[in-house]
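TA notes, week 10

Several of you asked for a full example with nothing omitted. So below is the full record: structure tokens for the whole chain, then the designed sequence directly under it. When grading your own attempts, check the secondary structure regions first.
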């Protein structure tokens, strides 16, 4: 019936081609497997690190030669999309800054009479705070009709002020062409590695600069294509050129190296400690870098970066956000994102009439990308409102989830709590009993007619709705023809694994198994009288340990179950016979159906269970009723529900789900030299949406209880403690926590 991709990043072109149609691709730990593309991103532009850390504002040693003021009161604004009903079939190709410091947006369309490339020039009117696009055909590329494979063409403008384009043909061969009047001339002799993953630019002297997935930067002579020099570099999409100067991250991706291509020598490396997405821009004498932590600035001949704009709640603060391009024009920053087919947002100083006169406070235990996206869109629509977003993150390592909840509860009861609560991980039952949460029914009103009845019903208590998830995911079993009885219970599954000598994909850790089994076979350890059932807890831990042994658990956790993890190619090849998967939204269906089909198995739902995501509730003590109502209605409106946020789950808007049920992504392929898998076809997407609509049993985790179970169980699973000692420790800590609620 269904299926998915290896180690969470597998579905090669599923979303990439669907939305950007292959003009740029993704990385995410792909040095070893450059064919693997993370399906959720239109471009992965991600400098991967084992544990992502905050970008460092400055190094500890010495002081920057130049200091810059921290920019405040900057507003985030949406630039209108180039896509309308008239051109919705066009796809993203590139965005550049032209010689007049205007943004140009390029698209590709495959039409009955041939391929077409279109250029949109952004026209802004600062006084009227308006923006529009001027559209014109890129006629000099008409001669390439029929030569471009799947829209893989990237027009750009060189520092020599000539127009160029790099495209891929049906044989996956790259070509670079230069405008020559009404047509073009191909630049021959270029020995370019055969990969989609590259960035190409042209210096003022005409030489060609190319950086690719191999983390190497090349400089070619345009006249004959001969290689002049090359050097090791960071991720290719960090490339930026100005006149005859090249700026690109160093091989570690943590700093920006400056190479003088005229003299063919390195200049001073501008130091930083970037561990996330990096996009570089040059404006006059300064170099800028945009990351998810903020925007940084340094002199071109400087030694280190200084943060000048904190990410705060801006769109680029999202972990799942996809940075494509970054430009600096005067005192404004423009960021192009992979979401929404290449959306553009502008960051510029607030005007006098932009000053917020109202505020709304939102709290979540952890930073939430769906909330960050909502905040960004809400503040663009309601510029007179400031959203203050608080999270429980950033505290000292010794502060537990229970400590943070205790502090939050004290604030709420004192009348100083946030207006809206993201209840993921919070003790929701306790909040309902204490009267902390207000009924959502009056706020939602007629909007409920547009939301999934099964989800509404799951959260209706005595005709009241105290909370509602914006998104949710579906736990499923990927099978290969087994009798359903072998995975019907935790005990039967463990016995099945032991009998077969292991049935799951390799490289799951102790934490992975604990989390997978806790979520799929939740133990009944808390009785109705709020006491801990030690026998049930003991049985659960014994079975988890037996599975760790039969499946040969490893120490290091690579990707957690809740993030989404599968193993499609090994599954199809028989290296695994079963897999627990968490379908994280429409594109999460991936190639699972095809993989299951090839193994004579199916994709089976786990008893209509769903995992709520971004569970929203209203603080009953808040006096900010009108603004709360506006935000909640906005959060569940079609306008926001239809927005795609990677791995955030299925939306609860019926119309959005119905639209996805009509998707046919079977033409998108992924695989290796011996095995090729297709994406889900329309029938399979329809079947999945039927499953989604029937999900009616929420499994909500109290973060404090889970943290206790995790900490104390791992000590037993790794043979550092006796079972009874871990059971007693878990029971004691949970019991104390429950008494406090």
């Amino acid at each position: 019936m269904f299926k998915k991709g290896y180690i969470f990043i597998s579905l090669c072109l599923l979303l990439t081609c669907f939305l950007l149609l292959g003009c740029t691709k993704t990385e995410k730990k792909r040095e070893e497997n450059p064919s693997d593309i993370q399906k959720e991103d239109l471009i992965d532009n991600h400098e991967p690190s084992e544990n992502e850390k905050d970008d460092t504002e400055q190094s500890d040693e010495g002081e920057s030669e130049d200091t810059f003021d921290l920019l405040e009161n900057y507003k985030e604004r949406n630039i209108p999309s180039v896509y309308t009903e008239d051109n919705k079939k066009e796809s993203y190709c590139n965005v550049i800054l032209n010689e007049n410091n205007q943004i140009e947006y390029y698209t590709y369309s495959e039409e009955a009479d041939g391929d077409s490339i279109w250029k949109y020039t952004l026209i802004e009117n600062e006084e009227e705070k308006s923006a529009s696009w001027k559209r014109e055909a890129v006629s000099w590329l008409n001669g390439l009709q029929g030569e471009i494979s799947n829209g893989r063409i990237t027009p750009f403008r060189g520092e020599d002020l000539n127009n160029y384009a790099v495209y891929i043909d049906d044989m996956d061969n790259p070509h670079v062409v230069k405008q020559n009047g009404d047509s073009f001339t191909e630049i021959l002799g270029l020995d370019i590695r055969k990969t989609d993953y590259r960035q190409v630019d042209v210096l003022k002297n005409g030489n060609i600069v190319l950086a690719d997935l191999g983390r190497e930067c090349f400089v070619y002579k345009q006249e004959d294509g001969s290689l002049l020099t090359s050097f090791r570099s960071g991720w290719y999409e960090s490339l930026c050129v100005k006149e005859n100067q090249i700026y690109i991250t160093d091989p570690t991706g943590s700093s920006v190296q400056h190479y003088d291509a005229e003299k063919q020598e390195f200049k001073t490396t501008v130091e930083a400690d970037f561990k996330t997405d990096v996009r570089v821009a040059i404006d006059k004498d300064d170099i800028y870098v945009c990351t998810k932590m903020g925007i940084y600035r340094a002199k071109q001949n400087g030694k280190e970066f200084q943060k000048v704009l904190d990410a705060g709640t801006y769109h680029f603060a999202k972990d799942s956000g996809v940075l494509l391009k970054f430009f600096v024009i005067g005192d404004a920053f423009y960021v192009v994102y992979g979401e929404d087919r290449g959306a553009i947002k502008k960051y510029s100083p607030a005007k006098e009439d932009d000053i917020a006169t109202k505020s709304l406070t939102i709290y979540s235990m952890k930073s939430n990308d769906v909330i960050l996206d909502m905040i960004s869109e809400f503040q663009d629509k309601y510029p007179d409102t400031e959203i203050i977003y608080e999270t429980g993150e950033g505290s000292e390592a010794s502060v537990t989830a229970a400590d943070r909840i205790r502090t939050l509860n004290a604030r709420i009861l004192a009348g100083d709590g946030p207006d809206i609560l993201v209840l993921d991980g919070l003790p929701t039952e306790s909040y309902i009993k204490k009267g902390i949460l207000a009924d959502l029914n009056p706020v939602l009103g007629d909007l409920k007619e547009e939301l999934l009845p099964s989800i509404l019903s799951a959260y209706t208590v005595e005709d009241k709705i105290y909370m509602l998830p914006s998104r949710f995911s579906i736990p499923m079993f990927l099978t290969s023809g087994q009798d359903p009885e072998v995975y019907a219970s935790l005990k039967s599954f463990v016995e099945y694994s032991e009998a077969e000598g292991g049935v799951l994909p390799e490289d799951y850790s102790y934490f992975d198994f604990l989390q997978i089994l806790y979520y799929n076979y939740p133990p009944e350890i808390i009785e109705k009288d709020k006491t801990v059932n030690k026998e049930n807890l003991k049985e659960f831990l014994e079975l988890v340990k037996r599975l760790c042994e039969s499946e040969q658990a490893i120490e290091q956790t690579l990707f957690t179950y809740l993030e989404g993890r599968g193993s499609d190619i090994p599954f199809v090849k028989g290296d695994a016979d079963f897999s627990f998967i968490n379908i994280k939204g429409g594109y999460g269906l991936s190639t699972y159906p095809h993989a299951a089909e090839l193994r004579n198995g199916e994709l089976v739902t786990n008893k209509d269970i769903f995992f709520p995501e971004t569970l929203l509730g209203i603080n009953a003590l808040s006096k900010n009723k009108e603004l709360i109502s506006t935000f909640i209605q906005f959060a569940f409106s079609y306008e926001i529900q239809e927005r795609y946020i990677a791995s955030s789950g299925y939306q609860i808007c019926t119309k959005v789900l119905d639209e996805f049920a009509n998707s046919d992504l079977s033409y998108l392929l992924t695989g290796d030299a011996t095995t090729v898998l297709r994406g889900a076809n329309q029938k399979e997407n329809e079947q999945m949406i039927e499953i989604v609509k029937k999900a009616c049993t929420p499994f909500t985790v109290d973060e404090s209880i889970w943290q206790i179970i995790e900490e104390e169980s791992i000590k037993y699973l790794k043979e550092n403690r006796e079972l009874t000692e871990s059971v007693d420790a878990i029971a004691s800590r949970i019991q104390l926590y429950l008494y406090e609620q």
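Residues 1-64 have pLDDT under 50 and may be disordered. Use that as a sanity check on your answer.
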